[in-house]
Specification:
With 72 residues, the chain is an alpha+beta fold. Helix content is 62%, strand content 12%.
Amino acid sequence: MNAAQRREFDKLAKAYKAHLTAQEAAHFLGVTRQTVVRRIKAGQLRAGQTGRFWRISPDSLRAMLQLRQEDA
């Protein structure tokens, strides 16, 4: 994650404070909501479920971004 991405991520995390929805995480990752849900179910992205809605912590999303960058 480069400095610009880190600043954008930190700004996003502050705006949402606690957790992001799957749709918000998908927007930030540049993938679809379904891809985020598949990654959650595959254990690649840590998240909790409240009813039928997934909630992703900013730390979990940050870890996913770092893994994606290492793979690239």
